[in-house]
């Protein structure tokens, strides 16, 4: 479903490239882990999947289409199809939970009535129906990430991109967020791409993984076929 072909990224004014000639495929329906130490290139790679970062060379294909060739309108549609969640949640502090979740629906031009119905559905999916009117500052880290997940799912994407989604959370909260992601993969059939520096996260959740080191791809594929050290 997602093909990454010869992807390289050189940031202006830096020495070593952040990504060097990376190629692998992410199958539809996978929970695909991208594992590596801090600075390995994980964030750069995941941001190339929605063109928040432009590759210096190579291509990213979604269902055979080169997303690097999309005009701004096609790119906006692509970003609605690829929901993203962040380590530090990136919620809007002046908006309550329901209004945070509604952001992608506003961008997609969904009517107010339909937005309200969809937000209610999403609140129930992530177990936050009682918090619709709360503000982000009134929530725990795990609750904030659930809002982030609901917002990412609002426009019914087929891919969920997770940038260190649990790194700011304690182990118990991490487990509950990971199990929500698993439920979303199984019930909604979403493809999930998640980057992490924690091998444990990959082992508990992912069926596929890619290992990055210093911008290079060390190995990739089905977990069962990888050499990832125990
Ligand atoms: P994290 O480890 O939580 O991803 P970083 O400190 O690596 O956070 O990066 C935070 C932000 O700074 C990201 O948007 C990243 O692209 C940017 N960034 C990281 N390294 C550099 C750098 N050397 N020069 C400029 N921006 C950078
Ligand atoms: P990771 O997510 O694995 O921590 P990143 O993709 O954030 O890795 O960073 C890979 C390399 O690219 C690092 O050396 C980082 O400092 C550099 N980098 C990241 N973002 C920027 C940026 N905006 N400008 C310059 N260098 C960056």
UniProtKB/TrEMBL annotation:
Pfam families: ABC_tran
Membrane-related topology note: Peripheral membrane protein
Domain ABC transporter: 2-230
This protein's GO CC annotations: plasma membrane
Similarity remark: Belongs to the ABC transporter superfamily.
Record's function text: Part of the ABC transporter FtsEX involved in cellular division. Important for assembly or stability of the septal ring.
Protein name listed in UniProt: Cell division ATP-binding protein FtsE
Species in which this protein is naturally found: Trabulsiella guamensis ATCC 49490
Phylogenetic classification of the source organism: Bacteria, Pseudomonadati, Pseudomonadota, Gammaproteobacteria, Enterobacterales
């Amino acid at each position: 479903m997602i093909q990454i072909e010869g992807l390289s990224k050189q940031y202006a004014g830096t020495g070593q490239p952040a990504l060097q000639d990376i190629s692998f495929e992410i199958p539809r329906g996978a929970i695909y882990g991208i594992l590596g130490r801090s600075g390995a290139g994980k964030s750069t790679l995941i941001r190339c999947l929605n063109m928040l970062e432009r590759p210096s060379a190579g291509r990213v294909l979604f269902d055979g289409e080169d997303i690097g060739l999309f005009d701004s309108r096609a790119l906006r549609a692509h970003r609605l199809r690829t929901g993203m969640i962040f380590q530090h949640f990136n919620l809007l502090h002046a908006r309550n939970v329901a209004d945070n979740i509604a952001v992608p629906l506003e961008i997609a031009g969904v009517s107010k009535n339909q937005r309200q119905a969809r937000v209610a559905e999403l609140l129930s999916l992530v177990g936050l129906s009682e918090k619709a009117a709360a503000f982000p500052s009134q929530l725990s880290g795990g609750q904030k990430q659930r809002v982030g997940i609901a917002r990412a799912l609002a426009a019914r994407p087929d891919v969920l991109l997770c940038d260190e989604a649990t790194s700011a959370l304690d182990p118990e909260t991490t487990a509950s967020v990971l199990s929500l992601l698993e439920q979303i993969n199984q019930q909604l059939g979403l493809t999930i791409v998640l980057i992490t520096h924690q091998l444990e996260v990959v082992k508990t959740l992912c069926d596929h993984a890619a290992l990055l080191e210093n911008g290079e791809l060390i190995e990739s594929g089905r977990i069962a076929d990888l050499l990832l050290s125990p």
